[in-house]
Amino acid sequence: MEIRPSPKDNDPVMFDSLHGAVVEAPTTPIKFIPAATLKTQLARPHCSRCHLRAWCVPGDPTNPRVDCMDSLMFSRRKVRAGERLYREGEAFGYLFEIRSGTLKSSLSTAHGQERVSAFHMAGELIGLDGIADGHHASSATALEDTEVCAASYAMVTDLAERNASLQRTLLQELSRESVRELHLLVRFGSLSSERRLAAFLLNLSQRLSARGYSPSEFRMRMSRSDIASYLGLTVETVCRNFSAFQKLGVLEVDQRHVRIADLDGLTRISNTDTHKTPRAGRRRQPTP
Question: How far apart are CA 115 and CA 109, in angstroms?
Answer without folding.
Answer: 7
